Write the structure tokens for this entry.
Amino acid sequence: MKVPAPGCDCKPGKEGDNNPLCQAPGGNYTTTQYAAKAYPGLRELKVLKDFGNNSIVASICARNLKDDKAQDYGYRPAVDAIVDRLKEALTGKCLPRRLTPDPVTKQIPCSIIEVRPTPTGGSPGCGAAGREDPPQGVVEPVRSRLKEIGFCGVPNKPDCDGSQIYFCKIKEADPLTDPTSNCNKNESPNTTGWCYVDPSAPGHENDDQSLVAKCPATKQRIIRFVDPMNATPAHDATVLIACFGASLPPEEATP
């Protein structure tokens, strides 16, 4: 008899364990493996299902181990799911006050600044999809806020004024000015950026109510990020939202 490799599920002498992987078509248990196994199991899945939005399920078996540039490489899908859930919790906050768009540009008077570590050996830039250089008048208030929250300028953190971090403005994907963006719909986005969703506001009648359904009745409005590549905000970024003339204090998020 061939000695099974270490870790074999159907070892000789273990037939009495009644392992379903080793159950022959006739019903008896043998040293031959007839079935495959997968994790998580049904019991774990049931528990996680009962947790609802507080849980994320992913396979322990990596689908792709060859193309490390692909979205499904290794455990990247599971990590992306976790980041996406955190992004909802941290940046999809229900807003207490309505934001009023500029009467001329029709855009919300907010600047959303993405702060990222400067890449090692690379040159930072705001050429990625949905990004542009930030307005100079916003950068200094952002630096001050970052220092206040201990992100930089404190021991064991990067220098707020140095070259270890850089700033980009995330573009607005407002459906009022870009009807194809899908940012205000509970659908796959066609663009990268952010938009203000407020179904009860004038001009926002086409906003999808389901996007704010979890908000309290008096706060059914959000700032929503969209990106076909699920990379906005970037996974290693801190985001500050500064709305001018809107009575909305800056907020920060670290997805």
